[in-house]
Specification:
314 residues, mainly alpha, 0% strand, transport, ion transport
Length: 314
């Protein structure tokens, strides 16, 4: 098990290096001059001498290979540069907003799990029943409604009409409900259908038949065996969506004026704040890799055969 975990961690390094290379290349292929972007963000009309001096300060007059190596060294030191707009370290700016995005992400994931698991499981073991039909309707609606429209609908009914939850901002648990539900709704639709399909597939497996012939209680078969195996692909989906939620909850944060990481990234794009954009992309890549590693470890705990298969393949 330890060898498998070590090998999985080692594989992250080349993937992250590729991500840094792609990010570095895309930024340098962009028509935006970082020196010009710096002065534009500062609302300063720069002369040619000022642009040349700033390019020298940013190291843009060095060969691309040297620039890339220097970028890697700074990344290893958790130095993503200085924001052109706020003149503060990018890492400090990101971490100050990350807590709000983490709250939103965790809230939406908890809602998605606690709603989709029971509905998807019951829909699978009671095919063509009331819950199954409800799960199909829920999945259809969740896959069809855009997040921004759902957010405005929730604001209209629960904030404007009923005055139950605040319209925007943060502060209390009530501020978290509507944006979390908005972000969780598509996940509920996805995980409900995924779990239902997996439960139906596992009910056809021989181990269920043999467990029943041995006289094992139906609740034990469903809860200890069927659900445990059927939920495995859903956990994999959670790993993919965790990184996406942490870095991609941009629309929901904009609708509810949520001071999170995604909204900050949109502002950086409009301001052409290159260090922030680069830091966001690299951090997003790191979060995706870490979240998938965590999911792999959870999957290995649920099904120890994964580590044995991984050891055999490698």
């Amino acid at each position: 098990m330890g060898t498998y975990v070590f090998k999985r961690i080692i594989t992250i390094i080349p993937i992250f290096l590729v991500a840094t290379l792609i990010t570095f290349t895309m930024i340098h292929l962009s028509p935006v001059d970082p020196a010009e972007a710096y002065f534009t963000a500062a609302h300063v009309q720069a002369t040619d001498e000022m642009l040349e001096q700033k390019r020298h300060e940013l190291g843009l007059d060095q060969p691309l290979l040297i620039q890339y190596v220097n970028t890697l060294i700074k990344i290893c030191q958790f130095d993503f540069g200085i924001s052109y707009v706020t003149s503060k370290p990018v890492l400090e700016e990101i971490t100050s907003r990350m807590s709000a995005t983490v709250q939103l992400t965790m809230g939406s994931l908890l809602i998605a799990i606690f709603v989709s698991v029971p509905i998807g499981f019951l829909a699978g073991i009671r095919k063509n029943g009331v819950i199954d039909h409800f799960s199909r309707l829920l999945s259809f609606i969740g896959a069809s409604i855009p997040s921004f429209w759902l957010g405005y609908l929730l604001i209209f009914f629960f904030s404007v009409k009923l005055d139950i939850f605040p319209v925007e901002g943060t502060g209390t648990w009530k501020h978290l409900i509507l944006p979390s539900v908005t972000l969780a709704f598509p996940l509920i639709a996805l995980y409900t259908r995924l779990l239902r399909a997996n439960v139906l597939d596992n009910l056809q497996e021989p181990y269920v038949f043999f467990a029943r012939t041995r006289g094992i209680h139906e609740r034990v078969i469903m809860g200890k065996h069927v659900l445990r195996i059927a939920i495995s692909p859903m956990i994999t989906g959670l790993g993919m969506n965790l990184g996406n939620l942490l870095t991609g909850a941009i629309i929901v944060e904009a609708v509810f004026s949520w001071p999170g990481f995604g909204r900050y990234f949109i502002e950086a794009i409009f301001n052409r704040d290159v260090p922030v954009i680069q830091g966001y992309v690299l951090l997003a890549a790191g979060l995706f890799l870490i979240s998938n590693l965590i999911v792999d470890l959870i999957q290995m705990y649920i099904d120890p055969r994964i580590s044995r298969k991984g050891s055999q393949l490698q």
